Amino acid sequence: MTALAVDNLCKHFGGLRVTTNVNLTVEPGERRLIIGPNGAGKTTLFNLITGEIAPDSGSIRLFGRDVTRVSSHRRPHLGLARTYQIITLFANDSILRNVTLALLGLSPLRWSLFKDLEQQQAVIERAHAALARVGLGNIADRPLSQTSYGERRRVEIAMALAQDPKVLLLDEPFAGLSIDERRDVRQLLNAIPREVTVVMIEHNMDVALDWAERITLLHFGEVIVEGTRAEVVANPRTREVYLGH
Amino acid sequence: MSARLRYGAIVVALALLATLPLWMGNSYYINITSQILLFAVFALALNVLVGYAGLVSLGHAGLFAVAGYSGALLLQAGFDHLTATAAAIGITLVASAIFAALSLRSTGIGFLMITLALGQIVWGVAYRWASLTNGDNGVNVSTRPAPFGVSLAGATSFYFATLIVFLLALLTMAIFVRSPFGASLRGTRDQARRMTALGYNVWLIRFLAIVFSGFWTGVSGLLFIYYNQFISPQVAALTSSAEVLLMVISGGTATLFGPIAGAAIVVIMKNVVSAYIERWNLVLGVIFVLIITFMPEGLVPGSVRLLRWLWQTLQSRSGASATRPSEELKP
Asked: What's the average model confidence in pLDDT over B56-67?
């Protein structure tokens, strides 16, 4: 059964067609890279998959289940997690609280009015474990406002991984990172277990090329080329629309 | 130091409140304190929305009046106190749910405008639907209840009843702030989009917060009619909604004690200062301008900041440690 199947998806904003008949089939455990120049509709595709915006037509299936009409906040409960290109964290809270909120999101505990969150050892231990996984275990209690950009990127990834997703959508996880930080994040991604299906958007093709097993090239909202790494790199249309010459 | 100071201050405040009728003597001032406490419950309730949910309501006096009018009319119809108050709270919860369902179609300014309109509808009903609400003449509440055989007719006994309700409200708020639900609500205030992507039903969380706020608003509305033994459309007016919002903002949003300080300022201005200065509204305005200018975060957090700065300055003056003094003065 395919992990993520996008079928004939369309979305337009006014006269601008941002997603045109997009088909995408990602197998369980696959590492899929979605590339494309600015404005190709990569992030819009993620927003459609997570349900943040509704498609005009087409369908989205997660492990065979049609989720096209499932509301956005239910989809994480079905095993879908994402990170954001523009870091979207809780700036007034500690790193630990950020990850705790990610864990709480899938727990019935989030409705509890009569418990002390600080006393929920099980959740807090899991948050610590998730932070240790991304190498932030030693600064868990630091306020987010006192962290570096690279650390915030890793908090984003820790929050997504903490939810034990079946399908993980990474929106440009390397954006704005230094070479050293990129290497760290890269190691992090390599350590993600195979049970997790990962779809990554990357604007800069070189960064994640050797990470991907299959690559989808988007251009003006359409899938132009799709195939293995070698196929896509060798395809003349890739050179034409993406590499620019 | 600061944790012990905080506990010390709370113990002193509790002791002062518990013994107030002994040293205050004058029943007029005891009544003023009751009024402060009941409006503090109102402000604490609104703070759930303004402070923790990031939803600014300008129609909360509407919910306050729904509770007050329901209670007063049911009592007038001959129901006993327990039935009337329980039913009034029930009606207020339903009204809050309706308020929530309508106003949560938007956030920010849109939310504010819808709550404003809903509050005006309640005012309109109270003012114009005279066959039900007696219009501008208002509704009298002839007696105060006597829970467990203790009559609340006197200023002192009513003060203690109000104090108990106030402390219950404060305790509930303290638990709420530390609870997972409180953390969820603050999350929807700070990053609603992210919360949805993490699996939170943002709409439902906000809805429940409004109903929770509505519950304590209703409780304060009932305290109000028992205190005044009268309710009129003025209670539901826009100025009442604005007043309680000012209590929350001037005291300090998203803090436990800010709304209480705000309630104290407004009530004292209205009742005490107005006896000496005819244009007390002007004094109130000046005080708000001063608060916004020098303590934009509100009176309580602002005072804490000033005291901490003062403390550090004094310590560095006294010699030993060279701490950074003025850094925290910036708002």
From this structure: 96
H runs (alpha helix) in A105-178: 121-133, 149-162
- B196–A contact, CB cutoff 8 A: yes
Give the span between the Cα atoms of B19 and B158, in whole angstroms. 14
Tell whether B217 and B75 lie within a shared domain: yes
* Structural domains in chain B (count): 2
The per-residue pLDDT for range B158-198, each reduced to its tens digit, is 999 999 999 999 999 999 999 999 999 999 999 999 999 99
Tokens of B150: 């203790």
For the beta carbon of residue B26, count every other beta carbon within 10 angstroms: 10
Of A103, A135, A164, the position where a domain reaches its end is: A164
The interface pTM score, or ipTM, of the predicted complex is 0.91
Residue of A101, A109, A114 best to disrupt the B interface, most CBs of B under 10 A = A101
Q: With an 8 Å Cβ cutoff, is B181 touching chain A?
A: yes
The answer on B174 and B314 residing in a single domain is no
Does residue A133 sit in the same domain as residue A146? Answer: yes
Q: What would the pLDDT profile of B250-304 be if each residue is shown by its tens digit?
A: 999 999 999 999 999 999 988 888 888 888 888 888 888 999 898 989 999 998 8
The 3-state DSSP class for residue A19 equals strand
Least Cα separation, residue B191 to chain A (angstroms): 7
Please give the pLDDT value at position B276.
87
Do B196 and B329 share a domain, yes or no? no
Structural domain of A107 = 90-164
Out of B181, B193, B196, the one facing A110 most closely (by C-beta) is B181
Assess whether A102 and A112 both reside in one domain.
yes
Which phi-psi region, left, alpha or beta, contains residue A93 (left: φ > 0; alpha: ψ -120 to 50)? beta
CB-nearest to B199 from A52, A92, A106 is: A106
> Looking at the complex, does the CB of residue A117 fall below 8 Å from at least one CB of chain B?
yes
* Position B327 pLDDT exceeds 50: no
pTM of the model: 0.91
Q: A47 CB near a chain B CB, below 8 Å?
A: no
Instruction: Note down the domain range covering B326.
Output: 295-331
* Domain termination residue (choose one: A164, A180, A204): A164
- Give yes or no: residues A124 and A146 share one domain: yes
Residues A202 and A172 sit within 8 Å (Cβ to Cβ): yes
User: In what order do the strands lie in the sheet containing A57-62?
Assistant: A16-26, A4-13, A57-62, A65-66
- How close is the nearest chain A Cα to the Cα of B184, in Å? 6
Mean pLDDT by 10-residue block, N- to C-terminus, for chain A (245 residues)?
93 90 94 90 94 95 95 96 92 94 94 91 94 92 93 94 96 91 91 95 80 91 90 87 64
Are residues B194 and A89, on separate chains, in Cβ contact within 8 Å?
yes
Q: Is residue B10, in this structure, part of any structural domain at all?
A: no
More confident residue, B96 or B10: B96
